[in-house]
Write a structure and sequence with these properties.
- By secondary structure, the protein is an all-alpha fold.
- It has 2 domains: 180 residues, no CATH class; 31 residues.
- 46% of the residues lie in helices and 2% in strands.
Length: 220
């Protein structure tokens, strides 16, 4: 019988990610971050005849939720329709909430999606979301950020593939997301073209990654 239990190292990394999810980040409170995670879990691709409303049309005013309709709509778009966010739309989003806040929002979404999708793929129950912890964001901005041709600033000096620095403006949340990528994808073998000790070979893994990116219309 195939063992569908997640790798212990992946579980350890996911545990560390989950431990930070409800704590205040650089730009968002713990309550806001957990509210984002809840929207991620409520989001699903819409049928073609039910398009998400334009972000510009969504209210910025509170409606009894932790996040405004605009922010909930933004989390939904990043979760299930990220390819629909053009460079011009990101300019408008950054003008609305700030580039670092957008990067942290996207990083929170990416962390929750990665952990939840792995559990779903293995037929496991989703983790309970952690409680939101009190406190305010620290508002510190990472050093060494620059415009390198992406939608938002990122680390000026490249260290490998550009995806490794794509959300670096989010600081610690970017690092936690990359920990998940590292644990779930290549580990220490990223630069090795032959993987002989895994269920899938490196070409098979890359084929799955490329197909998934194509289905998600990943512009990267």
């Amino acid at each position: 019988m195939t063992d569908l239990r997640p790798n212990p190292f992946v579980v350890e990394v996911a545990d560390s990610v989950w431990a930070e999810l409800g704590r205040p980040g650089a730009q968002w409170t713990g309550a806001e971050r957990i509210a984002m995670a809840e929207v991620v879990r409520q989001s699903a691709p819409r049928p073609l005849w039910d398009r998400a409303p334009a972000l510009a049309d969504l209210s910025r005013e509170g409606d009894g939720h932790v996040l405004s309709p605009y922010l909930r709509g933004l989390v939904e778009r990043v979760t299930v329709e990220p390819s629909s966010l053009s460079a011009d739309e990101v300019v408008a989003i950054v003008a609305e909430i700030g580039d670092a806040a957008y990067a942290e929002l996207a990083s929170v979404v990416a962390q929750v999606v990665a952990v939840d999708h792995q559990a779903a793929a293995l037929g496991l129950a989703l983790r309970d979301l952690p409680p939101a912890e009190p406190g305010q964001p620290h508002r510190r901005r990472p050093e060494g950020m620059a415009d390198v041709g992406g939608h938002i600033p990122m680390t000026e000096v490249s260290d490998g593939p550009n995806v490794r620095r794509s959300l670096s403006l989010a600081g610690a949340d970017h690092d936690r997301w990359m920990m998940l990528v590292f644990a779930m994808y290549s580990g220490h073998q990223f630069n090795e073209m032959v993987w002989a000790d895994r269920a899938l070979t490196r070409p098979q893994v890359e084929l799955l990654a490329a197909r998934t990116s194509a289905l998600n219309e990943c512009f990267y």
